[in-house]
Write a structure and sequence with these properties.
This protein has 13 helices and nine strands. It is an alpha/beta fold. It starts with 12 loop residues before the first helix and ends in a 16-residue tail after the last helix. Bound molecules: iron/sulfur cluster (SF4).
Length: about 400
Amino acid sequence: MTFAGIRTRALDPAIERALADAVDTGSLDPAAANRLIEADIDTLPLLLEAACAVRDRRSGRTVTYSRKVFLPLTNLCRDQCAYCTFVRRPSDPQAWTMTPEEVLAVAEAGQRAGCREALFSLGDKPELRYASYRQWLARHGYARTIEYLRDMCELVLERTGLLPHANPGVMTEEDIALLRPVTASMGLMLESTSERLLERGGAHRGCPDKVPAVRLATIEAAGRLRVPFTTGILIGIGETAAERVDALYAIRSLQDRYGHIQEVIVQNFRRKPDIRMRDWPEPTLLDMLRTIAVARLILGTTTAVQAPPNLMPDGYDAYLLAGLDDWGGVSPVTRDYINPERAWPHLGELKRRTERMGFTLRERLAVYPSFLLRGDEFLDPRIRERVRGFVDPGGLVPIDEELW
Ligand code: SF4
């Protein structure tokens, strides 16, 4: 294996060896990862080059995205993350739980715009906190949000053909089993393995669903049930560099056991005026490049590495230098309700910037090609049947120039 970086000084031979091994074997030594996450000017070029070599082996020069609509089923939540602008209390005029009619209207707009994914993202179990919301659910015939979500996934699937991806927070194995027949995939950001963030003044103070072990248990349950799964880390919320690396290894370990993780998101914290962390420093582009590259080397070729383009609008194309191979869901119809001030790039702009870096942009479904091509175990038969009509033999959506 050869890869020659631009060097101004000799590198530590141990780091050089660890990078070469990571490219050769698809896994990175933890001691090296903890140093590389803070790579300096001498090490950074080689880190990026190694990450690109691993990415190229996994996906060549193809970068993917999913054309989606965003369905924020409810913005009530029992947690209170210090960086969240999505969440509302029931008394807030902007509190919103979508009715079935609203869900269907958005999904139909997405269908008209050529979308294929319906991303359901919502607050975590608000019924455990708010009596008024429990009453709303009861009036609609439900005891729990997850049951309402199941029926809304079914509604969208049946009436529009869009493939639901469900992201309702922490789930039990029974919850996941309930959603599996009506979804193409599910997701839960691990965010961090740092217990410190739950302490006073921490980003996850007052968030029972942000206990790392609880989130890891959900990801593991999805593995047992053979569900194509999305997870990731949120960087810059008070975790240390070592904790960031630890979270990536926790994900890799679950991937090695179950093989169900289809993508790992590296998401950067963004400061907003109306959050508790309004004065907190944001990760820089350099932080993102180092973290994406280390994520790529820890995860090897086992999964896609994704970062949201709308959260670094001036520099997201540089992510391709760090081993990224997916832009995530981009919507031509709905805004990013989690980061409403950050518009998604126009798909034509995303394509132009991707191609300028030497890559081809291709649309994928809410379930990645590798899960479509490796047998039936990862998808419910009904979902598999629908998906079949959407993709080419490589598992990606055929190119339709009219959509650009
Ligand atoms: S769990 Fe999600 S929706 Fe709830 S407060 Fe945290 S970030 Fe916001």
